[in-house]
Structures are given as C-alpha cells and as structure tokens.
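Table 4 source record.
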Amino acid sequence: MSHTNFAPDHAAQRRPVALSMQRWDSLLSNSLRASMTVGLLLVAGCQGGGGGAADDAGVTKLAIIFDETMGQASLGSEAKRGAMLAVEERGADFRAVYVGDSGAADAARDAVIAVGFTDSDELRLVFPAFAAAGTPIMIAGATDPCLLTMPGSDLLGFVCFSDPMQGAAMAEFAHERLAARETVVLFDATSEFASAVGAAFTTAMRGLPDGKASVVAFSRDVEGAVATVMQKSPSAVYLAALPQDGPRVIQALRAHGFKGAVLGPDSFDEPAIFAAKDLGLVYYSTHAWLAGKGEPAVDAFVGRYRKRYDGAEPTAFAALGYDATRVAILALARAQSQGVISRATVARALGERAAFDGVSGTIALTNQERFPRKSVWIIEANAGKRQLASRWEPVKVPEAGCGERR
C-alpha cells in the first residue's frame, strides 16, 4: 500500500443554501408530476423480468441498479428499498422491469439517468456502457475517488462520502478515543475498494502523533494473514474487506486470540456484523445514523420506511438509495422544466444542482471535490447491539493514490 499526501480540509468552506423539502415538493409538483411519466427500470441481480421497448416507447426511464444476490446483497437490497420508497413518495407513474446483472448495459442504453451501486469494483465493470451511451449515474455508495479517473467520469454524481474521508475519520477516532497507536491494516488484496479505504486509514494513522500502521494483505489465505497480524501485537486492527468477508475474517482474528477493537469501513453496516453476538468489539464508519436523531425529515423517512417494509429498520444504505433517487428525480424535473428531457439535459441538470438536504446529510458540490463533505458516523457494535460512538469530521483527508498499487 502506498503513502499519499494530505489534502486540505475544505469542510469549512461556504456551501450553497440547501434545497428544502418544501422546495423539492414544489418543483416536483409543478414539473415532474404534471408533465412527465417516469419509467422505473430496476436492475436486480439474477431476477427475471418482463417488458420490452415496444411496451414503453416514449417513457422516460430512471434505472435503479443494485446488486441483491452476491457480495453486495445486504447493502444493495437496503439501497434499492430506499430508492423504491423515494419513487413511490413522489407519485411518479412507473413500471418496474427486473433484469439480471448482465442487464446493466441495456439499462445504460435505455435510461436517461441511473441510480445505483454500493460497490466501486462493481461500478468499474459496467461503467463503460454508461460512458458510451452518455447516461449519467447518481452513485449511492461507491466510495473510491479513483472512479473519477475513468473516461466519462463527468457523468458520475455522488451522495456518499469518499474512502479517504471515512478512512481518515476512523484513524483519528481510534487515535483519540481508543488511544490506538500500534495498528495493523488487514486488507483484501483482490478489492480496489478495500485497497483504497485501507490506504486512507494507513496514511491518516501514520500522520498522527506516534501513530503506526502495519499493512497485511489477504486473499484466499485468511489464516496465514491473521497469523501475521497477531505477530505484530496490535492494539487495534483495521479490516478493509467486502461485506461477505468481514464476519469470517473477524472470527478468524478472535480465534487467534485477538481481543482488541476491530475497526472497519461502511461495508460493515450490515446485520451479519452489527447484529452478531460473537464478533467482540467492532467499530465501523457509515453514512448516516438514523436512530433517535430527532430531525423531522430523518424521523419521517424512518417512519415511512418502517410502514412500507413491515417494521424493518432502515440502514445508512437505505438512506443513500433514497437520497440518490431523490436527487435523480429532481434532475429529471429540472430538465423537464427547461423543455427537453434527454441524457444531456439531465446530466447538465445534475451538474447544476443546488445543495440538497438529504436524510444522509447535506449533498453539495464544490469546485474542489466531487464527493460531498459529510460527517462520518462511527458505530460501536458489540454482543448483538449497536450504538453511536461518534459523529466525526476528519481534520485531514489523505489524497487518493490513483494508479498506484496501495
């Protein structure tokens, strides 16, 4: 993993006034509901679907693309639920069409805008089709800033924070609140996401007083990697892994006798980790904390989500899917208000959008950054229960080492 330099903290820069819910409803009522039909193309892994171009000719399509079948199933399912709730709330007339993962390329050709992706690696695989079609995407949870080096990346918008942001936040939290000095970063060498977020934590920790971070990679040989970690006697381990690998690697650490805190990124925001009773003390970063915030918009979202999904509690990824879809629908409404809905006009509307108060935080563009500068929520999970440990805004955020092997 490579060292990277620190970037200046732009969090204190002045932001444009955020779009209020009242203004949001007004725009949609006047522009979207009255004069536009929105077709919703749900792209969900390995599910069949019906409906062809002949059935919906002339319908403006919003593609919702989340993986619900493999490694991203827990995160993607939540994000899709949030996205569906946003569409239903806005009263849009749509028809759902379900296709497999291989249908992402068709979605790029058929839709004028897409919402989706909770994983950076997944987005990299399919993005060439969107770039070729000129279809903009509002990204819910793909957090690697090196995505912006891809050809056509001007088509990408983000409602999530970046990997450097969450990696730096966890490093500062562990250093200040947990008194962690000797740490090990255990990362999945097969994942660009894990490499990116692990690099951010490493750089940030090494930049703090007396902070040390050794780096250990794993792929198939988890046991060997864990044995190497234990030889270093860390006070905390930062595990940069995908959702499907987090629980088994934590279990391996515990089986080898590690009793300290396991730290992790937003991929840990799933029940297999936060509801587990045998993983010990775990801290992870995520995009929102929806329990007991006391903010009317957030509380209203939680209430609607529970009602819609039989009492289920939304996660941060449900909030991201919800916010990303609301921003996308607003871009459609803006394009419609200017007379023409096309990929180009919607992409322009997306780029010109005002700051937006979402349930996951304020989503604003700046000249310096494409990812929103939002608080990082750090959650403590232990014995099947979770609680808010901190709301953190890192002092320094490392630059992404794009093009380098981390």
